[in-house]
Amino acid sequence: KKVGGKFGNTRADDEPVTHVSSRQAGDFCTWLGRKEGKPYRLPTEAEWEYACRAGTKTLYSTGDTLTAEQANFGISADKKRIGAVAVGRYKPNAWGLHDMHGNVAEWCHDWHGPYEADAQTDPVGRVDGNARVVRGWSTFAVAHPNGGLRFLRPANRSGHLPEAPTRHPGFRVRVGA
């Protein structure tokens, strides 16, 4: 609430949470789990990508293109710069998940580092490191100096310092062990 509406942060209850550290996102999952009696956590980056793709093998869950009508990547359909918007404003992917491309980036459970060389099925990812994985990118993608829609691909990944809350990463929760 202290930073709501400041520094490009969201301000309404229906907008994505931003300006939270990875630890705060994890603490929320723990709190929610105790409250509801279910095991909540951040998704691994493999789970996040799988959910984002929703069974597709294209550049985006929408096919090989992504438009301002399909996702919030920082530019409105009439070419105006915008920030994060209400969750669910854009059509969901084939599995009913909203805002997997754009709006805000999302913390993942894994630590950032190189992928393992061998093929893997449902990898858990690194168990330690200096940065946590962030997926999905944000409305910052188009404005980035090297930006573009490539940052919004399901396969795009980045690492952020886990204790550094900024306006870019938010989070979504996953239920399950």
Shape: globular
Helix content: 10-25%
Give me the number of helical elements: 3
Structural class: alpha+beta
The succession of helices and strands, N to C, reads HEHEEHEEE
- Proportion of beta-strand residues: 5-15%
* Strand elements, count: 6
Summarize the structure.
With 177 residues, the chain is of the alpha+beta class. It has helices spanning 22-36, 45-53, 140-143, and strands spanning 40-41, 105-111, 132-135, 157-160, 169-170, 174-175.
Keywords:
177 residues; alpha+beta; two-stranded antiparallel ribbon; 3 helices; 6 strands; 12% strand; globular
Describe this structure in words.
- The chain has helices at 22-36, 45-53, 140-143, and strands spanning 40-41, 105-111, 132-135, 157-160, 169-170, 174-175.
- By secondary structure, the protein is α+β, with helices and mostly antiparallel strands.
- Strands 4-3-2-5 form a four-stranded mixed sheet. It has a two-stranded antiparallel ribbon with strand order 1-6.
- The longest helix has 15 residues, at 22-36.
